[in-house]
Amino acid sequence: MLDFKLHDRESAPESAQPLLENSEESFGMIPNLHAVLAESPQALEAYQKLHELVLESSFNNDEKTVVWQAVNVENECHYCVPAHTGIAKSMKVSDEVIEPLRNETPLPDDKLEALRTFTLAVMRKQGNVSQTDLDSFLAAGYGQRQVLEVIMVLSQKVISNYTNHIAETPVDEPFKKFAWSKPQA
User: Fold this and answer.
1) Given a cut of 70, is residue 157 above it in pLDDT?
2) Rounded Cα distance, 26 and 51, in Å
3) Which pLDDT tens digit goes with each residue over 158-185?
4) Domain formed by 59-178, architecture
5) Is the pLDDT reported for residue 1 higher than 70?
6) Crossing angle of helices 41-55/17-27, nearest 10°?
7) Residue 94 and residue 124: Cα distance in Å, rounded?
8) Where would I find the H helices in 9-143?
9) Hey, which of 101, 128, 135, 165 has its CA 20 to 30 A from 9?
10) H/E element, 105
11) Residue ranges of domains in the chain
């Protein structure tokens, strides 16, 4: 594997420095994912912009967490599952939602379960979902906007999950207590 540098504001390429400053202001630290992405200022900017757009989406905090974690768990991201566990807790998402996502057990809410099911269908079928997949999602109370927003969140997670796999990004200290590995079958 490549030995990816964890950049700080001084070591990062010049055009990434203000982006890392933005990360530090937003999170109170430079998350290691952002430190890795800073090697490509465009990749870091893309990730930050997608994150901002996800936060502005029509999904509430529980729904954002469902899509983020469904993708993170499916992709077995050692970094993002703990990070999004901490983020979910800071967003006041309950453990009744967080733990089933981490453990791949049923969610306590049918609408949230429909969101997870649809997100996984989009991922696993690479967007080639069936009419039944769409009908089930729509019947749960979602619409065309949310179909597109699931795709947007998937785009954000491709950047982070794949980067973390390749760079073997170390989990940030605040999230180590939420360490995760895929449950054994």
Assistant:
1) yes
2) 12
3) 999 999 999 999 999 999 999 999 877 6
4) Up-down Bundle (1.20)
5) no
6) 30
7) 27
8) 17-27, 32-37, 41-55, 61-74, 80-90, 95-103, 110-124, 131-139
9) 165
10) none
11) 14-54, 59-178
Q: What is the pLDDT of residues 45-95, one digit of tens each?
A: 999 999 999 999 999 999 999 999 999 999 999 999 999 999 999 999 999
- CB of 68 within 8 A of CB of 149? no
pLDDT over 90 at 6, yes or no? yes
Residue 172 corresponds to which amino acid? D
* Crossing angle of the two packed helices 110-124 and 131-139, in degrees rounded to 10: 160
Computed over its alpha carbons, how large is the radius of gyration of the chain?
Answer: 16
Q: Which of 103, 119, 73, 113 is nearest to 185 (CA)?
A: 103
d(CA 147, CA 169): 30
Contacts with 49 (C-beta within 8 Å, 6 or more apart), sequence order: none
- Per-residue tokens: 74: 């499916």
Under a CB-based contact definition with an 8 Å cutoff, are residues 17 and 44 in contact? no
Q: What is this structure's pTM?
A: 0.95
What is d(CA 69, CA 102) in angstroms, rounded to the nearest whole number? Answer: 7
Residue pair 28/15 in contact (Cβ under 8 Å)? The answer is no
Task: Quickly count: other Cβ atoms within 10 Å of residue 9's Cβ.
Answer: 16
Residue with tokens 């807790």: 89
